[in-house]
Here is the input.
Amino acid sequence: MNDTNKVMVSPSAPQYYYFNFPSGVDTAIISVKSPDEFCMTMSIQNITCPVYDLDRNVNFEGSYQTVDKKTGMSIRRDQYPRGLHIVFVVKPTDIACQNSYMSLTPLVPAANCHGPCRNKTVEFTITKKITKNEYLAATFGAFGMFMGAYLLVVLVSCIICVRIRKVPMERSLYDVPPVSNVRRSSSQRRYASTRGYGSIQDNHHAESVDSIERIENSDDSSIDEDDIDMLTDADVDKD
Here is the structure.
């Protein structure tokens, strides 16, 4: 586990490795990369005989996929309880790794190959994969953090709204009642306090209310020059 293995694979020399799950590991990931672009098949097979390591039969057992430069596969213990074989087989052509039909690889002999050289360097690593419980813990943990932040924002907003409502507002001039209303309300209170003492007191109260209203009217109205005594008779001789 967690070790990188390097191997050279060719169509005439496939390679396969045995892997058994260590204790405490139920799932793992096989990561494969290669600097060469030659098409290859990676197969995961159960521990059986024979091992299918040829291009014509590598697809008969287990799961497989084609690879050019990089790939990965997930494996589980319940699928391979006794272990597994990792098989690498290089194909004679690259047609299986391409989307459209391409021409065959030209048969140009090389110095060190009996035919076209298709040697492929492969590096693979087996690492532990997170379990189902770890996946659920990470998922619900992120969801819980999101909900906690949401509730915190709502709580802070409510506290700010409550504080704004409790702050006393300054009274303006429009909120102060006029003097006439104050006088009228005081006269009404006096009238209410004296209603139970008879009709004579009611008449006296009515006269007092009328006098208060006249005072208010005199305060509100402007002064007329005819109402002013100019004392013109002071210049007349008296006997």
